[in-house]
Every structure is written in structure tokens, then in C-alpha cells.
Amino acid sequence: MNYCLNTTKSYHAHELDTLGWELTVCNALYPENSPCRNILKTNASLGVSLYRFLEKYIPFSESRNVLEIGGGIGYLLRDFLELNPNLRATALDISPYLLNRQKETLQKYNVRFIQADALKKETVFFTPFDLIIMNENMGDLPTLIPQKGIVPSPTEELLFYQNKASELNSRYYLNFASDEIINIGALMLLENICRADVKYIYLSEHSCDAAVPEEMQKLIDIKPTATPEKITLKGHDEYTIKFSQLQKIAEIFNYKVRRGPIADFLPIEFSNKLTAILRFRTPATDEQEIIQQFVYDLYKYEYLILTK
């Protein structure tokens, strides 16, 4: 099969200058008056809810060195540091714009900032960390897209990622289909972090494996697909992640795996009003549209908690 390469590297490194148009779950929950908080059982930011959830699986008293890769504006890491000032935090981002935003958000804290491409880091870079977090950003990593018919000669970069896909397919029995979109960047980065024997890893992103409970299928239309799906955004495309493949790699490295929708730690407080909003084919207000998208994301996003 011939492939082309989808990469957002140039966009994030040279063009990105705002996140105002992209409403992540983290950003949607950060304002205290966010309408998204009103539909949850716990009125809190994503970082606070995630930290309390991870406490069940990670002994933070013994896990001090934390790396967040691609931390957006820095809200999640700020919540972690407010809840646990003893953490020694590092923020790594390919985007100079976002790294500067993180410096502003985290200026009160002793955080090390690194502008770099995580895929270019050697395994030894990740070894000192007790916990590595990648929240809502793995879809930005390089993706191999199958192409039919006559295609241009592959570039050196494309050949590199195709060879890596072949290696990973053989090494981890991933059984790529001939017409399957491959999350090659996500697979490579997780393998490298696992090789570093990091004790605790948290990942979350839109998942092509996602599904909703049967009793909610009339309200939320999410079904698993055989291959990652394209998400078209300003200036670039992202792809949903095949979490079953990430899970397989982690298990081969002997990680214990907990996996589910982020609704597990952001549970919804259902009401007649919310049910009515979810039933609307066309939302009547901006707030209703935001809530519909937010609830969809709570089940479309999956997470992995990997522990040694």
C-alpha cells in the first residue's frame, strides 16, 4: 500500500498563534462559570478531576518528577502543582507560542520548559520521569494515510515512517489492514516512553475505538470505526487514535492498563434539561451547542492509565 504523511509539525512550530478556535475539554472546563461544569457531578476543572482520579492508581507522595508533553496553555499542569506543590514539573512543547503561554500560566511555579519535538527525544530523556502526561494531543502526531492509484515518489521522511510502521507491525502484532490509517507518531512515542520504563503514563485523545453505553446511544451518536478518522481544524488536520493498538504495545511492555472514556472521571449529572439539549438535532443557542459537543467529547475521548 502507498501512503502519504499527515504531519502538523510545521503548523505547530511556525504558524500556531491562538487556541481560541479549538475548544479542548481542558479549556472548556477551566472557567469557573463554564456551562460545561454545570452538567457534571463535580464542579471542577479538568486538572483537578484528573488528579483526584489518578490518585487512586499513582502514589503521588513517591512520584515527584512529572513531564507533560504538549500542555496547551498550561491549565492542567497548574492544577496539579496547586494540588501538590512537591511535584517537580517539566513542560515540553513543539510550539513556541504554546510554550510561552505555559510560561505565563505557570510563572508562579518552578517548572522547566523545553521547546522540542517529543518524537526526536532519545529514550534516555524520558527515564528520569515518574509520570508522563499527554492530554488531548496525540492526534497531532504524524499519521500515515493510505493512497490509491499513482502517487509521487515517497520523501525520505515518509519512507522513515513507513519503515517504522512495518517494524512496529511485526514487533507488536498490530495487524494493520491494507487500507488502514496508521497513528505512527503516537505508536512510536508510546513505545519510546515504555522503553524508558516510566512507572506511570497517562494518555487521552479522541478515539476511533470509542463507543457509548447502550442506554445512551439515543442521545450520543458514537460508534467505533475500523480506522482513525480525520478531524479538520484551522490550518491542519488531526486524526483520532486507535487506542487498542496503544494498549497492545503497553501490555507487551508489562504495563497494567486501565482504559475508558474520560466520562469515568468527569461523570455527568443527568437532568431533564440536559436530556432535552442532547435530543435537539439543531441547538437553539451557543450554550446548547457547546454542551452537546462537550458531552460528545466525554465519550469520544478515551484515556489510558499505564502503571508498572
Cα-to-Cα separation, first versus last residue: 37 Å
Name the CATH architecture: 3-Layer(aba) Sandwich
H/E element string? EHHHEHEHEHEEHHEEEHEHHE
* CATH superfamily heading: Vaccinia Virus protein VP39
CATH third-level topology: Rossmann fold
Physical arrangement of strands within the biggest beta sheet: 4-3-2-5-7-11-10
Shape: globular
Number of strands: 11
Write up this protein:
The protein has 308 residues and is an alpha/beta fold. It has a single domain (2-307), classed as Vaccinia Virus protein VP39 (Rossmann fold, 3-Layer(aba) Sandwich). The protein has 11 helices and 11 strands. It has helices at residues 9-15, 25-29, 46-54, 75-83, 96-105, 123-126, 156-172, 184-195, 243-252, 272-279, 286-300; strands spanning 2-6, 65-69, 88-93, 111-115, 131-135, 143-147, 200-206, 230-233, 236-239, 256-261, 301-307. Strand 2 (65-69), helix 4 (75-83) and strand 3 form a beta-alpha-beta unit. The longest helix is centred in the middle third of the chain and has 17 residues, at 156-172.
